[in-house]
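Thread: Newbie trying to understand structure tokens

Hi all, I'm a second-year student working on a class project, and my supervisor (Dr. K.) asked me to get a predicted structure for one chain before our next meeting. I've only ever worked with sequences, so writing a 3D structure as a token string is new to me. If someone could post the tokens and maybe explain what I'm looking at, I'd be very grateful. Here's the chain:
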Amino acid sequence: MKVRHLASICLVMAVCGSPGLAWGEEEYLAVFMEGKKVGHAVHSRVVEGGKVTTSEQVSITISRANIPITVEMTETFVETTEGQPLSFESVQQLGALTMGVTGSVDSRGIVSLTTTSMGTKQKSTLQWPNGAVMAEGLRLLTLKKGLKEGSQYSVKIFSPGNLQAVDAQVRVGPKRNVDLLGRVLPLTEVTTTLSVPGAGEIVSVGYVDEEFRSMKSIVPIAGMQLELIACTKEFALSENDVLELVNKMFMASPEPLDDVGSAKSIGYLLKPVAGTEDLSIPSTDNQRARKVDGGNVIVVVEPVAAPAGAKFPYRGTDSTILEALKPGRFVQSDDEQVVSLARRAAGNAGDAAEAAKRIESFVAKYVANKSLSVGYASAAEVVASKQGDCSEFAVLTAAMCRAVGIPAQVVVGIAYVDEFAGQTGFGGHAWNQAYVGGKWVGLDAAFKSAGRGGYDAGHITLAVGNGEPIDFFNLAATLGKFKIEKVMVNKGR
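---
Reply by user tm_fold:
Sure, no problem. This is what the structure looks like when written as tokens:
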């Protein structure tokens, strides 16, 4: 399981930030997960020359199978004193790898982007989301709306790390006495509901003082509880506890599953946990999801076979499929080294099905160092390092398929494993689906590398995308919202 979903903390802090910060002030918070201090956060705001510069920095250290990894993220927003966006920057250091993106917004709302990874810069543009705000715009709106109990309002918040805006509903609650690491203060409760595409709703609860400073915020992530608590600089920067994440990212199976790869299909009865109002599980060509009584969801996973004779490159006009051919920040299908490897892997394949399978097998062997120390790498970075775990296999597979004209997506969800780092059951995982002859066909180079054979009915899809941060946010948001009550294995003939 990746730590990539921790990038969602930046989005949470943009929502539950410190809108009352004075000129030049810094504010420190300690970050807790499952009751253990795992990092710190720093907010700052400076007003100068008619511009407001707000910075939000987060550092978290967790352990995966006793391998520590530190994730550091910094987002900087530059706005007018009226809250109009001017520019932004996001720098994410995930283990040994760093990715940055800068953007400037012109008077027409056109955002000029520069993405930097491994010293390589990619330029692109996007349209500023209508009505979206960044840190200062959110601060001004918060001041305008006030803290009257019962008041509610909507806001669209732009996240540089995800390069998209997320709708948020804010509700002001009562005053409560809140424990802040031994200090008890009367604070106003503010509940924020984020509507994340593909992940449903994420509800965070914050507590702010009379100056609108966020003193404590709580948000559920992957079935765990994340807390940010205002504190002294000395405590925020003090030594962290050790939180082992692998066991937190596994879901129990109601029974052992033998020889999953031979199953024609597997049905799963998913039961929402208490407090989950709407469990949203996608349907794809490989799985069918339907809601039944009590909010339960039945998911039937039946891998489709790749149709023979399909030509590539794809020449159709479907916008979704064409999107799965484009290069992206993490899936750099136009990178020279990626293109070279893709052509080498596909070779003289006679059709798209054979080419996709050849790429899957190639990646399974190419990523020789199956390391948990990589936070999250792009396809170009994997080509250079030849190391990583499931998501590194997935982004490289997607990029290589796209490089030869086969539409491909990165899939995130859970997959059954007999044993991983002492755990058995369904663990967070990433794999692929490639568009072949009118069907999205599952590929799993990581499982093939481990000798499992690749994609099978032991995979439950939770989100599909381009390997962007929002995809892993969706995974983190959905994990912890359900339990697997029953499995129904169909071996077929």
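A couple of things are worth pointing out once you decode it. Residues 1-8 have pLDDT under 50 and may be disordered. The first helix runs from residue 8 to 15. Feel free to ask follow-ups in this thread.
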